[in-house]
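Could you please consider the sequence and fold following this short note?
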Amino acid sequence: MTVLLTTVSEDEKVFWYIALGMGLVVILVVIVLLALLVSLVKDIDDGVFRLWDVTKLLAINTTGMYQLAGTASVLRALREECLRQDKMLTERNGMAAQR
Protein backbone atom coordinates (compact mmCIF):
# COMPACT_ATOMS: atom_id res chain seq x y z
CA MET A 1 0.00 0.00 0.00
CA THR A 2 1.45 3.31 -1.04
CA VAL A 3 0.66 6.57 0.75
CA LEU A 4 1.23 9.77 -1.14
CA LEU A 5 2.45 12.63 0.97
CA THR A 6 2.17 16.00 -0.60
CA THR A 7 3.12 19.32 0.74
CA VAL A 8 0.41 21.89 1.19
CA SER A 9 1.20 25.47 0.45
CA GLU A 10 0.21 28.34 2.72
CA ASP A 11 -2.45 29.53 0.26
CA GLU A 12 -4.06 26.10 0.27
CA LYS A 13 -4.03 26.05 4.07
CA VAL A 14 -5.77 29.45 4.12
CA PHE A 15 -8.41 28.20 1.70
CA TRP A 16 -8.95 25.08 3.86
CA TYR A 17 -9.34 27.23 6.97
CA ILE A 18 -11.79 29.48 5.15
CA ALA A 19 -13.78 26.43 3.98
CA LEU A 20 -13.79 24.95 7.49
CA GLY A 21 -14.82 28.32 8.95
CA MET A 22 -17.67 28.64 6.47
CA GLY A 23 -18.77 25.10 7.33
CA LEU A 24 -18.73 25.99 11.02
CA VAL A 25 -20.82 29.11 10.36
CA VAL A 26 -23.33 27.06 8.35
CA ILE A 27 -23.56 24.48 11.14
CA LEU A 28 -24.13 27.23 13.74
CA VAL A 29 -26.84 28.84 11.59
CA VAL A 30 -28.55 25.46 11.19
CA ILE A 31 -28.43 24.91 14.96
CA VAL A 32 -29.98 28.34 15.62
CA LEU A 33 -32.70 27.79 13.02
CA LEU A 34 -33.53 24.37 14.42
CA ALA A 35 -33.75 25.84 17.92
CA LEU A 36 -36.16 28.50 16.60
CA LEU A 37 -38.18 25.80 14.87
CA VAL A 38 -38.42 23.76 18.07
CA SER A 39 -39.56 26.87 19.95
CA LEU A 40 -42.17 27.63 17.31
CA VAL A 41 -43.47 24.05 17.35
CA LYS A 42 -43.77 24.16 21.16
CA ASP A 43 -45.74 27.43 20.93
CA ILE A 44 -48.06 25.91 18.33
CA ASP A 45 -48.47 22.80 20.47
CA ASP A 46 -49.37 24.90 23.52
CA GLY A 47 -51.89 26.84 21.44
CA VAL A 48 -53.45 23.63 20.17
CA PHE A 49 -53.80 22.30 23.71
CA ARG A 50 -55.44 25.56 24.86
CA LEU A 51 -57.77 25.45 21.87
CA TRP A 52 -58.63 21.82 22.65
CA ASP A 53 -59.48 22.77 26.24
CA VAL A 54 -61.71 25.63 25.08
CA THR A 55 -63.53 23.43 22.59
CA LYS A 56 -64.13 20.79 25.26
CA LEU A 57 -65.61 23.47 27.55
CA LEU A 58 -67.72 24.79 24.68
CA ALA A 59 -68.99 21.29 23.95
CA ILE A 60 -69.91 20.84 27.61
CA ASN A 61 -71.75 24.18 27.64
CA THR A 62 -73.74 23.40 24.51
CA THR A 63 -74.89 19.87 25.32
CA GLY A 64 -78.35 21.11 26.30
CA MET A 65 -78.88 23.40 23.31
CA TYR A 66 -81.32 21.00 21.68
CA GLN A 67 -83.70 21.63 24.59
CA LEU A 68 -83.93 25.31 23.66
CA ALA A 69 -85.67 24.42 20.40
CA GLY A 70 -88.96 23.78 22.23
CA THR A 71 -88.63 26.74 24.58
CA ALA A 72 -90.30 29.23 22.24
CA SER A 73 -93.46 27.17 21.85
CA VAL A 74 -93.63 26.51 25.60
CA LEU A 75 -93.22 30.22 26.34
CA ARG A 76 -95.89 31.09 23.77
CA ALA A 77 -98.33 28.65 25.40
CA LEU A 78 -97.45 30.01 28.85
CA ARG A 79 -98.07 33.59 27.68
CA GLU A 80 -101.44 32.64 26.22
CA GLU A 81 -102.41 30.91 29.46
CA CYS A 82 -101.31 33.92 31.50
CA LEU A 83 -103.40 36.20 29.27
CA ARG A 84 -106.43 33.91 29.70
CA GLN A 85 -105.98 33.90 33.47
CA ASP A 86 -105.58 37.67 33.51
CA LYS A 87 -108.72 38.12 31.41
CA MET A 88 -110.66 35.72 33.64
CA LEU A 89 -109.54 37.48 36.83
CA THR A 90 -110.28 40.88 35.34
CA GLU A 91 -113.80 39.78 34.37
CA ARG A 92 -114.38 38.23 37.77
CA ASN A 93 -113.15 41.36 39.58
CA GLY A 94 -115.27 43.51 37.29
CA MET A 95 -118.38 41.47 38.13
CA ALA A 96 -117.62 41.69 41.85
CA ALA A 97 -117.28 45.46 41.59
CA GLN A 98 -120.66 45.75 39.85
CA ARG A 99 -122.54 43.97 42.65
Observations:
- Residues 86 and 93 are 10 Å apart (CA to CA).
- Helices lie at 10-61, 71-98.
- Residues 10-61 form the longest helix (52 residues).
- The mean pLDDT is 89.
